[in-house]
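re: that chain from earlier
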Amino acid sequence: MDRPVSASLVVLRCRTSDRTAGGVRGAEALAPRFERLTGVEPRFIGSPGPPHPTSFEDDLRESRGCLLEAGGQVDDALADGRFPVLLASDCSICMTTLPTVIRFFPAARILWLDAHGDFNTPETSPSGFLGGMCLAAACGRWDDGFAVAPVDPARVITCGVRDLDAGERVELERAGVGVAEPEDVGELLDGESVYVHLDLDVLDPDVFPAQFPAPGGFSGEGLRELFSDVAETARIIGVEITAFEAPEDEGEVERLATMVESVVKPLL
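^ sequence. v structure.
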């Protein structure tokens, strides 16, 4: 399908709602792989902040600049006719990236690949974790303070989501967020403009490490097949990849980064 002739490859290193240091390490490890896939030199934005658990209010206040930067990088790429590829530690970036995509492509679909719905609100969240509320914020289900036009939840298609809190499940159903089986995604998105949000914990934790593991996820080959199907039928307009919880062993990081490169290659 048609797609921009060049890419924008950004590694966002500043802290959003990071509770470990592994996510930034993972994003940095993917950078040279995606440079090879896109032919574009990566730009590294920000410096890692100390990871720590805190309330969503504190995370919003402390990471506001980083979150605005995430949306700004997508805005810059799309305004320049480039294909945005954003590597980040945490899904919270979607609060600014997804509304930005919809501003440029109002009819676009969001393909949300994640073990989690991230659709809690401050009222439903058992943990108060900002990363577990971010898609709901992007869809205008609670006020995150960014004052942007929200994404219509009906534009979102989830796949691989399997770990939901009770209140979160109700919110997803009420909002009308779509749910698709892997074998149906390509046909469902046939002819659509699609922005892909990939949280790597959508892979099974026996295949890929995760900060919040949820059994029953994709195999590497299964996810690659899904991306091949989508790339054949849809117009991919951008990709963001989060939650590569990189271990400290460098050899293992390289092995896992090679897996991600192979899985995502059909999109690029």
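The two ends are 12 Å apart (CA to CA).
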